Amino acid sequence: MPYFKPFKMIILGFDGVLGSVLSGALDLFSFTGVSWQRFSNESVEPRFNVQIASLGGGDIRCSNRLIMQAHCDIRDVTECDLLLVPTIGDSIDKVLKQNSELLPHLVRLANTKADIASNCSGAFFLAKAGLLDHKIATTHWGYANKFKADFPLVDLQENQFVTHSRSESTNQSGNIFCAAGGSAFYDLGLLLIERYCGREISTQVAKTQIIDSKRGSQNSYTNVTLHKPHSDHLIKQVQEYIEENFQHSLQVSSLAAMVNITPRTLNRRFQSCVAMRPIEYIQAVRIEQAKRLLELGDVSIKSLADKVGYDDISSFTRLFKRATELTPKEYQDKFSRLAI
After folding, report:
1. pLDDT at 193 over 50
2. pLDDT band at residue 335 under the 50/70/90 scheme
3. Given this model, what pLDDT does residue 221 score?
4. 305, 312 in Cβ contact below 8 A?
């Protein structure tokens, strides 16, 4: 096997970083070209030269109180093939404020050939640096509302596990990748390994690390925030009624009559307050209840539709899969253990 010059990868270290992602990414890329080869009695050829860089090269205090030593000073990094920004583990606003001096270095490296990647709330760093303006991105579903409010110029695709944007700037020739929450950095890592090393190497890493590389979107992990903050008491009344009576037949016309407004007005005000129409809200409440029942594992698929207000099981199954990208049975198999 020919020798491959390792790609230079920098992982950004900062106080408040999620330690598991910082060390996990270091392991994932450092052992590319190593683990499989050891198992197969082949020559070990690391494909990435991975370094953790912090401001000043100082120690990094992770959110779990682990202290990690940086390999180098981000100010001394003049070029790299790939820069990864891990998850923010502490308060996002506090971490961004305390690490504001890192932002110019993100911009500086983005203006080279480097690919830039973030995991979960690490996307806030890229957005704060202006690198995601008018580009698609993703982050953990729990941070989606905050991200949209803080960075309205970013096209946030919160249901995607991984997004990929290419800058139209003449200064920046690299690509920007974002991964969703938690362990989604494995999906991102495999994608980047395939980009640099080819599909065969990426598959080897997936097998040695036992990573499911076809998980799709994060829709199936999303807990819909049904009560979005708003001050319209009439709409809150309708929301509460839907949540208490979702298992019964609900009509928009009846809901409108209940609060003495027209269906058209109810649709308009509901859309303004909750960012969905009443019928969509009813469906969201029913799907969320179905997910909870499936997670408890004490309901049959056959009876599930009836328990959440659907007479037609095929129609319910279709709506459930559209919302989660999993059938009810697939969802139960995947998540019922979480209730144990």
Report:
1. yes
2. confident
3. 62
4. yes
State which residues form the domain around 137. Answer: 7-219
In terms of Cα–Cα distance, which of 225, 234, 218 is closest to 268?
Answer: 234
3-class DSSP assignment, residue 44:
coil
Residue 229 burial (CB < 10 Å; 0-12/13-18/19+)? exposed
pTM (two decimals):
0.75
* Element at 335 (helix H, strand E): helix 328-335
Q: Which two tokens stand for residue 289?
A: 């209840």
276 vs 270: CA distance, rounded Å? 7
Q: 184 with 244, same domain?
A: no
Both 238 and 207 in a single domain? no
Number of domains in the chain: 2
Domain harbouring 261, CATH code:
1.10.10.60
Q: Is the pLDDT of residue 1 over 50?
A: no
CB 200 within 8 A of CB 184: no
